[in-house]
Amino acid sequence: MTDPIRVAVTGAAGNIGYALIFRIANGDLFGPDQPVILQLLEIPPAMDALEGVAMELEDCAFPLLTQTVLTDEPDVAFASANWALLVGARPRAAGMERKDLLSANGPIFVSQGRAINDNVADDARIVVVGNPANTNCLIAMRNAPDVPAERFTAMTRLDHNRAQSQLAQKTGRPLHAVTNVTIWGNHSATQYPDAFHAQIDGQPAPAVVGDDSWIKETFIPTVQKRGAEVIAARGASSAASAANACINHVQSWHAGAAEGDWVSMGVPSTGEYHSPTGVIFSYPVTIRDGVYRIVQGLELNDFDREKIAATGAELLAERAAIADSLP
Ligand code: NAX
Fold it and tell me: CATH number of the domain at 5-154, please?
């Protein structure tokens, strides 16, 4: 049997953690022949709950799960980790504004960034799910100077999947017929879910949809606000779909994206498509041999540019709000 892959998961006793780690243990990330070790990080008050989750993992008798580490110390959680899935974060409390959320999360991602820097395996790849995901990712990346910056990504795959699903439903086509969907920018309500460069059955999506005003006035806000809609209906935020998107993100990065298609990932920005530099910005990416590349050469119109500028401006404002967490 091959050596196990070490997967660190933070916030492992939380809602997304509960929907995520059983799938990892089941082999959903790397396939049915690849053993895994789970290295689960929580904060001290949640360690009892984490013990309970670990009991359930044992009770599943997953053949691929060779070891489970439970800890409240980041240095232990990230030791020799090949993948680090940063799910845990300070949730938004009543009356908290986005800027308060940003500053509450700053210290968490400073200390986790440092622990990643000092402990992970040479090939480590990092996925940030905990909100505000893009800016938390930036903080972790900047505090891990010895890990190549391109190994740090923020998850916008849930938004991507939501967009793909909305287009499939609208046109009555199967999901696999909908390709080349993009989420640009921030995982927040300013994100730009782009159907204009998408395809349905290999044709431009706008032509198949046949209704640009639906794309602009229904599709875009539906995807942007879907998280809030789930909270309103369920009384709790997206958990199974977020865990599934995290699985998809890792699967794509590990095994590659489908030929001719692309996926959305928040990655370190170097200014492509007039996005701001020095933030974590979601782009369309292709992936081969574990390396992602931002799709080049898409033509943007004024509408696209305006949307990309708006979400870029929000990311710059977020970066300014946590400037003291960036060395
Ligand atoms: P929960 O509050 O259920 O779980 C979070 C867990 O993280 C808790 O168990 C908590 O003890 C733990 N935690 C807090 N600080 C920690 C630290 N410093 N180290 C380790 N663990 C820590 O939230 P859940 O519903 O699981 O959501 C987790 C995060 O994902 C939230 O920030 C949430 O906003 C974010 N989301 C991101 C999404 C995305 O698409 N990028 C979508 C879903 C979700 O909203």
Answer: 3.40.50.720
